[in-house]
Amino acid sequence: MFRFGTSCVITRRVFGEGVRLCSGNAAVKDGFPITKISLSEPVSWLPRPVYASVSKAPHETQVTTLDNGLRVASEPKFGNFCTVGVVIDSGSRYEVAYPSGISHFLEKLAFGRTENMTREDIMGRFEKLGGICDCQSSRDTLIYAASVESKGMTDAVEVLSEVILRPRLTDDEVLDARMAVTFDLEDLQLRPEKDTLLMEMIHATAYRDNTLGLPKICPPENVLKIDQSILFTYLKQHHTPSRMVIAGVGVNHDELVDAAQRHFVESPSIWEKLPTLANNRSLEIDHSVSQYTGGIIKEEADLSDVSLGPNPLPELAHLVIGLESVGHQHQDFVTCCVLNMMMGGGGSFSAGGPGKGMYTRLYTNVLNRYHWMHNATAYNHAYSDSGLFCIHASAHPSHLGELTQVLTRELTAMAGHVGKEELERAKVQLQSMLLMNLESRPVVFEDIARQVLATGKRLQPEHFMDLIGQVSAEDIIRAAGQMLRSKPSVSALGTLNRLPTLSDIEGALLNRNGQLPSRRRFMLFR
């Protein structure tokens, strides 16, 4: 009786009054069995659905330039939380006149003691606002950002102005930063994943001793060289209003402009109040255009004893082969992004369906064919004036020669036949990834800030969706052919006695089939 009563109540809730249960618990409405009703036709006893309509609120990014050259950009977004932050035209590429590693230090020193706040004050304020904060550096930008409740937007801007323009950088904080940087350097050597080290190596190879090739991670010999005076000198030169963009997502634009005016314009920086903090020598900002050089950097390392717990990891040799690509303002930038999705790749342990890229070339042609291949992944790094397209792969050192041949073959095949199905799949996957990422406020914030910093405006996602849809097989072949004309950049880490020479790799990339010279292949693969 209890089951029958419960079922009857649920049925009435779903289908309304006038419903009864007959033998076998079959629901009947007006003498007609519910199971016989068509699911493709509307029914009379259900109310007509009311669908959500497209919001008419403006979604365009608003940009305002203040008197001191500071740009403020914002975009509305529904919700109780907002993301605000500052993106600065800074980073490791500008450290040519300084000891490399300043950006690494600034990451560790972020959100510390300022002229008017302690670290505890800053963290306490974010805690009350239910917010988080972060600082990240790259080769061409330095980002300070916070996500807080919308009512705390002004407080977040005030904190950002304090940590960017008025940090104290005390001796104790610099000492703590040195310890944190030293730990990072030791951790990079000990951890089994070598991606970060290899990305450093391939950039140093591709842009030897200039701009994008300068180290992002502080070299060990510079840990003790970087002090308060050097840091303040760098901040004074590079953290100027004309090199900054304040961006907000889910905020009122006028309120953001007012907050920026109060805290970033009317309140001076600490190096303006105390000129003695910075070095008096005049250093000009480096405006050099990146120079792609190519070449090879090898680092012999014994990776045979890497283990985690009772299960030792396999000994691997890592290889990255890169080619000069294009910057993010180049007309072929979107084409190179589609090519990157088409190459795809990942680890041999990965599982999943087409949504994970299991039908990309590096899966179907490499990981699924060679049992000894541990990883093969394509990357496309784009900057304002250049780009780097590369494939990172790893295998046991005994297969390093074969691994090199497989990578050169796949790179040369990029300029060959492009199937219609694989191209459409790559384009749809890139469009899906673009829209999925832009569902996150921090991603939208970074997209707005980076675009405004580079071009002074922000193009909407629809613009890039159209550009992706217009990419043709001929565009892929042309862009890949242009990349293959550049000198290769090669970085390798591990036991490298079977690594071919740079001239062999360069010759294989010029070969239509991507084959290493026959004599060399015989020596490597016998």
Question: Can you offer a commentary on this structure?
Answer:
With 526 residues, the protein is an alpha+beta fold. It has 3 domains: 2-36, no CATH class; 62-277, Metalloenzyme, LuxS/M16 peptidase-like (Cytochrome Bc1 Complex, Chain A, domain 1), CATH 3.30.830.10; 295-525, Metalloenzyme, LuxS/M16 peptidase-like (Cytochrome Bc1 Complex, Chain A, domain 1, 2-Layer Sandwich). Helices cover 40% and strands 17% of the residues. It contains 18 helices and 17 strands. It has helices at 2-15, 102-109, 119-128, 153-165, 171-190, 195-206, 228-238, 253-265, 270-273, 333-343, 361-367, 400-413, 420-437, 441-455, 461-470, 473-484, 502-510, 518-525; strands spanning 19-21, 27-29, 32-33, 62-65, 71-75, 81-88, 132-137, 142-149, 244-249, 295-300, 307-308, 311-312, 317-325, 345-347, 373-382, 387-395, 489-494. The strands form 4 sheets. Strands 4-5-9-6-8-7 form a 6-stranded mixed beta sheet, sandwiched between helices. Helix 2 crosses helix 5 (171-190) and helix 10 (333-343) crosses helix 13. It is globular, with a radius of gyration of 28 Å. Residues 1-16 and 519-526 have low confidence and may be disordered.
Condensed summary:
Helix content is 40%, strand content 17%.
CATH topology of the largest domain: Cytochrome Bc1 Complex, Chain A, domain 1
Query: Architecture of the largest domain, according to CATH?
Result: 2-Layer Sandwich
Number of DSSP-assigned strands:
17
CATH class category name of the largest domain: Alpha Beta
Structural class: alpha+beta
Overall radius of gyration: 28 Å
Task: Let me know the average pLDDT.
Answer: 89
Beginning-to-end CA distance, first to last residue: 79 Å
CATH superfamily membership of the largest domain? Metalloenzyme, LuxS/M16 peptidase-like
For the sheet with most strands, the description reads: 6 strands, mixed
Strand content: 15-25%
Give the number of domains. 3
In spatial order, strands of the major sheet run 4-5-9-6-8-7
**C-alpha geometry:** globular
Total helices: the number is 18
Q: Fraction of residues in helices?
A: 25-40%
Which stretches are low in confidence, meaning pLDDT under 50 for 5 or more residues running?
1-16, 519-526
